[in-house]
Write a structure and sequence with these properties.
Elements: H1 10-19, H2 25-37, H3 40-47, H4 51-65, E1 70-73, E2 76-79, H5 81-106, E3 113-119, H6 129-139, E4 143-149, H7 152-160, E5 166-170, E6 178-192, E7 203-204, E8 212-215, H8 221-232, E9 238-242, H9 246-254, E10 260-263, H10 264-274, E11 277-282, E12 287-295, H11 302-322, E13 331-332
Parallel strand pairs: 3-4, 3-5, 7-11, 8-9
Antiparallel strand pairs: 1-2, 5-12, 6-10, 6-11, 6-12, 6-13
Length: 334
């Protein structure tokens, strides 16, 4: 297991306070809120400020950065390319300043502050949520843990934009702005409806040439693994539907509309929900890497680092617990 290391938040905070000499932090807060809402009128109401005054603050900010930041349309406002860049940086700066305030208030009183963790649905990460909540509350009652179950692409974007601290999701390929710490490997299973005959075990990839499959879209990590395995075998999967909702996929399998190829943890959930059958795919074995994702350039706050340490502990426990059952099996990475 890779030992996590601590970072210093000084570079980003230094940028925030140095830039604050020219750009008022309050105007940055106003700007972020306007972009989030997409309307000057509604943003003014939320911020409890008159719209003309908010427009003046925006004009002053545009003058300070010497760039047009927003485009006004009948539907509201949208950021220009320069505005998008400022929006990303402003989120980071404001978040670091808020964390600095929390850290100073909590000095000598134990760890406190917000920590956000994303969990990809249908993964072994779902088994970590309750133990994570219990352990964080027991060890660090001052930490407010925010859990967000969402798709890996959404979670990785939130981390890149500085809006989330950590995420547990499928993937291990290097992506600019992100770093991945391998946690587990989950084998992929063929899952089919109870109303159709189960295939003879063992299930080889070659046996799936004509099988009607319901898979996620092609940008999904699991779909990429499946497509790559089929390409290596000189085949093309027979995809009859692309589904990225666990609820809809379970219902479709229960209705006999097709089969799917799923990681061990999600296969287990589908089988339990609708009485489907499952078999691990062999020749070749296909494994989905589950990883802990964080920014490669934004330092973790002390509370976030503490939550990360707990997550890594729980992953070891999870792998040991699941491996004691016959199947499916998870393999911890070290």
């Amino acid at each position: 297991m890779v030992r996590p290391h601590r970072h210093c938040a000084a570079p980003v905070l230094g940028l925030a306070f140095a830039w604050g000499q020219g750009v008022n932090l309050r105007r940055l807060k106003y700007f972020v809120k306007i972009v989030d809402i997409g309307s000057l009128t509604q943003a003014a109401e939320v911020l409890f400020i008159a719209q003309p005054a908010l427009s003046q603050q925006l004009a002053t900010l545009e003058g300070e950065v010497r760039q047009q930041l927003l485009v006004r349309t009948k539907r509201g406002v949208t950021p220009t390319e320069a505005g998008k860049v400022l929006y990303r940086h402003a989120q980071i700066i404001l978040r670091q300043c808020e964390q600095a305030r929390v850290d100073m208030e909590a000095a000598g009183e134990g760890l406190s502050g917000q920590v956000s963790v994303g969990l990809a649905p249908g993964t072994a990460a779902s088994a970590l949520s309750l133990p994570l909540l219990r352990t964080v509350r027991a060890r660090h009652p001052g930490i407010l843990l925010y859990l967000n179950e969402n798709y890996g692409t959404t979670l990785s974007e939130l981390i890149m934009n500085g809006r989330m601290d950590l995420a547990v999701l499928y993937g291990d390929k290097a992506i600019h702005g992100l770093t991945f710490l391998p946690l587990l490997k989950e084998p992929l299973y063929l899952v089919g409806p109870a109303t159709t005959p189960a295939p003879a075990a063992p299930v080889r990839l070659a046996d799936l040439r004509e099988m009607e499959l319901m898979l996620p879209r092609q940008y999904n990590v699991v779909r990429k693994l499946v497509d790559a395995a089929f390409v290596r075998a000189g085949m093309v999967p027979r995809v009859v539907a692309e589904i990225e909702s666990a609820f809809t996929l379970t219902a479709a399998i229960a209705d006999g509309l097709g089969a799917s190829i799923l990681p061990a943890s999600m296969a287990r959930e589908v089988v339990a929900a609708c009485g489907a059958w499952q078999f691990q795919i062999v020749e070749p074995v296909i494994e989905a890497p589950l990883a802990l994702c964080q920014s490669d350039h934004l330092p973790l706050s002390e509370p976030a680092q503490a939550v990360k340490d707990i997550l890594l502990e729980l992953v070891v426990d999870l792998a040991g617990t699941v491996k004691s059952t016959p199947e499916p099996e998870l393999t911890a990475l070290s």
